[in-house]
Amino acid sequence: MVLVTLFGGGWYREILKISERLPGDRFRFIYAYGYLNDVHGAATLPMPHPGERLPIRFLGPTRKRWYGRFVNGWNFAVACVEAFRMVRSRRPDVILGLSTASSAALFLAGRFYGARCIYVESLTRVENLSLTGRIVYHTRLADLVYGQWPQLQKRCPRVRYSGAVI
What we know:
The chain is α/β, with parallel strands linked by helices. The protein has 5 helices and 7 strands, in the order E-H-E-E-H-E-H-E-H-E-H-E.
């Protein structure tokens, strides 16, 4: 069973391209879609393989105001609780996440329950990892970290380069 993070925007295009390459007859899929403030826009995004869809808190942009760290911390705590419930009940073999902060919460739960975690850095990150990428890379939450540019591998030796997704 493969748990795939499903978020809107450019992340959706990238995960769609990756998912299209996975054999649907060999895996069962679960999609963890992001929601924020009771907006579940990513819940209905079409995917190439059928699968159950479960909500997880989207952490949103980093807030620049003084209270932003508290809000982000609270949202991450909620995402962790949801991730642990999701992974405990579904027991995926693999968690595939793109560069959203909610992926870190899923990887934390996945590591606890023995799932293999694969992180793909966003196409927009050419030379440096995103904040989520740095967290996942330095804490070794992911078994495999992929970058979509060869320059990224020069700065972070454990990042694998296999070409761009799109």
